Give the backbone structure.
Amino acid sequence: MSLLGIDVGTSGCKVISFSETGQVIASAYREYDVIRPRPGWAELDANAIWETVKKTIGIVARETRDDPIKALSVSSMGEAVIPVTEDRRILGPSILMEDIRGSEYLEALGGALKPERLYAVNGNTLGNHYTLTKLLWMRDHCPEVYAKTYKFLHWSGFVSFMLGGEAAVDYSLANRTLLFDIHQATWSAELLQAAGLDADKLPKPVPSGTVVGRVDPHVAQELGLPSKVLIAAGAHDQCANALGCGATEEGQAMLGMGTYLCIAPVYRQSPAPALMLPRGLNTEHHSVPGLFVSFIYNQGGSLLKWYRDTFARVEREAALSEGSDIYSKLLSEMPEGPSSVMVLPHFAATGPPEFITESRGVIAGLRLDTTRGEIAKAILEGAAFYLRECVETLPGAGIKIDSFRVVGGGSKSDAWVQLSADVFGKPHIRPKQTEAGALGAAILAGVGVGVYRTHQQGAEAVVRLDRAFEPQSGQRSKYNSRFALYQTMWPTMRSYLKALATCC
């Protein structure tokens, strides 16, 4: 018997079948493109991606006939939803969080939903990247679609629904709407009334791992799945990542090292809004019942990609043709110890605590003998310093981090993980399976079917640790000095960088 984890992201879908002990039986991945029909718009073609998801599931299903799939679950990106009818027809595209549509509602919503009250109910601050403003745009600009919509489903719930499950959403993804009461674990009548939206357009909220149905027999036949495959409610991808790397106890944190660097500390008591708002931190249900997480992030992985494409374009093209890993080569050029270069990672809009948009990235300290490897290391250091500033404010909110579990593509680099351990001064533990989103979804499927008694027991059964990276005392002291210097960079250059960002 195997458990199927499906991870639906913005640019691709990964499907992996795992044994009950966490061994990979079969896997498949397929990419798709974001559609940008107008400047500032960004959406996914839900019909096309549903076909891609089905094909990807079918590939894995054919390779698991000797280990039949017993249950499945889906982790997915947050915020974006798909309008569907009760008979499972797709009514339109899925508007992504980066899409500018809906921003026109922020001013009025800010008057109706004061920050302290919104946070007290939902655990988030107002922003156009959440589902709320996209629903308002749909209501006012696509009234026929809105009227015909049975439910607006997040991608996890959408895939489960199209496979044959009931229309449901897990708590972590429900929180991304700005319409969910995080304490009562239900849709908030107060927030819905303030927004002027219909509660009956939203799916039933359930805990991650809850059984929401079985795969429809006709769909099972089409995809080559066994009959009566159980469907368990999934989770927001970062929460599934945390479960899939074993970050299931207070004091642990997941560090995702992908396009975004994302730290998700795990804690039990939801801090007061007065403690979280100044830190720019959200509060969200973990995929593990009774626990919460917050997200501290920046686009560190995107910076490394920019560096690769800018400083190593020829090597990148050669690596693509040879099927080799250009990142390993570039990171092997990094010097021992901290870089002599300093980077302010404001190359794009930043994350918590300030969410800075009017700034620019800075590479300082260049000399004629500066090497490419020093710049690469400085980029990774700058992204880590940015996160450390926020992490060091957590104890004031009652949140502690004793160790990090590292996942994602960047976690495969020993040098990058060791650098992070030295910057934060905390152990970084890498599991053997770094595709934690799909593994987390498989654990939720196992909880639903009764293979695992609890979410924690499921993580203990399948998460295998590869290596612990301890902070190196000599490097730690050097990074403390570099970090102190980094902290002066943005305050010193704030006015200049704002002017640079806003000038013609």
Q: What stands out?
A: The chain has two domains: 2-239, 246-433+472-504. The chain has a mean pLDDT of 95. Residues 236 and 473 are 36 Å apart (CA to CA).
